[in-house]
Amino acid sequence: MRALLKVAPAVFNFITDSFDITRTLPHGHVAARLVTLRQWGLDRLMDRKASVMRNLVVAMIVARILTPASRLTTQRGMASETAV
Q1: CB atoms within 10 A of CB 63
Q2: What distance in Å separates the CA atoms of residue 24 and residue 36, rounded to the nearest whole number?
Q3: Distance in angstroms (rounded) separating the CA atoms of residues 46 and 83
Q4: Within 13 Å and on the Cβ side, how many CA atoms surround 50?
Q5: 43: CB partners within 8 A, 6+ apart
Q6: pLDDT confidence tier of residue 46, bands split at 50, 70 and 90
Q7: In the predicted model, is pLDDT for residue 34 greater than 70?
């Protein structure tokens, strides 16, 4: 980011002024759970190859750790937020 400010401050100001932040969501706690899950190798226990299905299962596990809910509620929440 500093390199961008040094090279073209006018471009940086134009870009940052062009967008309005409507909401921000905390994500550090999600990243921490995901890193821990991967360090434990839980994702590789489900499937050794990376795939969309494995990623969805990992996402559901992390979501249920953070906000315990039923499987259906978790799935509905993901669909509305991520356009899956």
Answers
A1: 19
A2: 24
A3: 24
A4: 1
A5: 37, 54, 58
A6: confident
A7: yes
- Side chain identity at residue 74, one-letter code: T
Q: What angle do CA 30, 73, 48 make, to 5 degrees?
A: 55
Span 47-67, pLDDT tens digits: 899 898 898 888 888 888 888
Residue 83 has pLDDT above 90, yes or no: no
User: Residue 27 in contact with residue 63, Cβ under 8 Å?
Assistant: no
Q: What is the dihedral of CA 79, 62, 59, 48, to 10 degrees?
A: -160
Residues in the chain: 84
